[in-house]
């Protein structure tokens, strides 16, 4: 977690800025804190979120938006 203060891991929704759901409630919750992005699976709200630098998160988003879902 890079020693940074992350959004709450006890199921609280504080700091969540964005959520995206796929099929059957497969949701990703994302919070932005200064220059870090935290992401977690909404099915596991008590789990610690993963942390990414803003640069790494941007690269991740670019990569996944280029993927052809039919080619997987």
From TrEMBL:
InterPro entries: DUF397. Pfam families: DUF397 (PF04149). It comes from the Bacteria. Residues 21-64 form the DUF397 domain. This is DUF397 domain-containing protein.
């Amino acid at each position: 977690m890079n020693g940074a203060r992350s959004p709450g891991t006890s199921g609280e929704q504080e700091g969540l800025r964005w959520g995206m759901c796929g099929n059957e409630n497969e949701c990703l919750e994302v919070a932005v804190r200064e220059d870090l992005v935290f992401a977690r699976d909404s099915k596991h709200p008590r789990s610690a979120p993963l942390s990414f630098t803003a640069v790494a998160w941007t690269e991740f988003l670019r990569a996944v938006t280029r993927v052809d879902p039919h080619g997987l």
